[in-house]
């Protein structure tokens, strides 16, 4: 039996600092509320960091990769070998997230939880080898409980390394051919939304491909009907190693006191799992963007999440979250560096 660490208490937001930050916003040389959503963002980050003037100098990006047995059902436009090939691209600096991490001065860690490529050993990648990808969840559970708990722990371990480096913001990214199918299946099971509303093109399926994907998910939901509503069992039955690692990372961030910037559809499904497992983690989650995958909107609505960007992204890798980092940094700078009315000797209100 596991120790179920993911149920441990999450760190509380510093409400005193939130009040001080709100008061500061009222004193800055601008009309009240004129910076729109940037104002509550800065206040939330102040409360999460426990300091009146928050900053996001140290950003950690953890990419989790894994393969999916359900790819055997023809649900992806790409062959499975791409997962392993992209791991090399991440550490060689050629992937979108590699470029973004460099531009942001962010730490980039790549964790391979289990791919179908045999004997993969890449310098700069942490290979955990939980299995040669998950099992085909149309025929049975995607992973054993032991594998699922190891994947959750892998996410937590990444966060502990981030904390040791003084990270102020954690971004999780994912890579795994077939993972929009796994994420859609989890979302359907937890949200009770019809499959046709959630299944989308992923990395580029045509209409026929999307229809086949929806049928595969319907079959999987029927096979795993008994675990419906149980977030942990649903994760292990229908998820991917990387989805479990992301959920573990988000929960660990809330427990360790590190703000999270959630990326696209797959990461948002992992966040949904995390919130169902331990609702107290929710205040630690900021949502970067609403992507092009149709299910993303439903997941964000359920989490009452207001995404920062809407750019029609569908890449994954943590790329959408990385794109939103400059916005968060500027929100902090405006909050911390603008003059107050008193400092600038500007009349506060019309006479």
Number of strands: 6
Look at the helices and sheets and give the structural class: alpha/beta
Q: How many distinct domains?
A: 2
What percent of residues adopt helix (DSSP H or I)?
40-55%
Report the sheet with the most strands, covering strand number, pairing sense and barrel closure: 6 strands, parallel
Radius of gyration over alpha carbons? 21 Å
Examine the secondary-structure arrangement and name the CATH architecture of the largest domain.
3-Layer(aba) Sandwich
CATH class annotation of the largest domain: Alpha Beta
pLDDT below 50 for ≥5 consecutive residues: which ranges? Answer: none
End-to-end separation: 68 Å
Description:
This protein has two domains: 54 residues, 5,6-Dimethylbenzimidazole Phosphoribosyltransferase, Chain: A, domain 1, CATH 1.10.1610.10; 270 residues, Nicotinate-nucleotide-dimethylbenzimidazole phosphoribosyltransferase (CobT), large domain (Rossmann fold, 3-Layer(aba) Sandwich). The chain is globular, with a radius of gyration of 21 Å. The longest helix has 20 residues. Helices cover 48% and strands 9% of the residues. The termini are far apart. It has a six-stranded parallel beta sheet with strand order 3-2-1-4-5-6, sandwiched between helices. The chain has 351 residues and is α/β, with parallel strands linked by helices. The protein contains 14 helices and six strands.
Task: Give a summary of the structure in a few sentences.
This protein is of the alpha/beta class. Helices cover 48% and strands 9% of the residues.
């Amino acid at each position: 039996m596991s120790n179920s660490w993911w149920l441990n208490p999450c760190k509380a937001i510093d409400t005193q600092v939130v009040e001080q930050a709100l008061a500061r916003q009222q004193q800055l040389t601008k009309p009240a509320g004129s910076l729109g959503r940037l104002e509550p963002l800065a206040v939330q980050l102040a409360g999460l960091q426990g300091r009146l003037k928050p900053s996001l100098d140290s950003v950690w990006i953890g990419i989790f990769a894994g393969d999916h047995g359900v790819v055997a059902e023809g649900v992806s436009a790409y062959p499975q070998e791409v997962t392993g090939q992209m791991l090399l691209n991440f550490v060689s600096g050629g992937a979108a997230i590699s470029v973004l991490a460099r531009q942001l001065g962010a730490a980039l860690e790549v964790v391979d939880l289990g791919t179908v490529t045999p004997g993969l050993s890449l310098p700069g990648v942490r290979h955990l080898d939980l299995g040669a990808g998950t099992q085909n969840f149309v025929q049975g559970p995607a992973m054993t409980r032991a594998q699922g708990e190891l994947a959750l722990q892998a996410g937590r371990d990444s966060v502990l390394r981030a904390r040791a480096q003084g990270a102020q913001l954690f971004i999780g990214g994912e890579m795994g051919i077939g993972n929009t199918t796994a994420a859609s299946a989890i979302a359907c099971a937890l949200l009770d939304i019809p499959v046709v509303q959630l299944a989308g093109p992923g990395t580029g399926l045509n209409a026929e491909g999307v229809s086949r994907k929806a049928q595969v998910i319907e079959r999987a939901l029927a096979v795993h009907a008994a675990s419906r509503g149980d977030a942990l069992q649903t994760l292990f039955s229908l998820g991917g190693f990387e989805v479990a690692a992301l959920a573990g990372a988000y929960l660990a961030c809330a427990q360790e006191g590190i703000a999270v910037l959630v990326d696209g559809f797959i990461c948002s499904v992992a966040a949904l799992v995390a919130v169902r497992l331990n609702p107290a983690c929710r205040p630690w989650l900021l949502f970067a963007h609403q992507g092009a995958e149709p299910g993303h909107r439903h997941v964000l609505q359920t989490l009452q999440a207001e995404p920062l960007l809407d750019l029609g992204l569908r890449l994954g890798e943590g790329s959408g979250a990385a794109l939103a980092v400059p916005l968060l940094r500027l929100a902090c700078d405006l909050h911390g560096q603008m003059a107050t009315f008193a400092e600038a000797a500007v009349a506060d209100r019309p006479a």
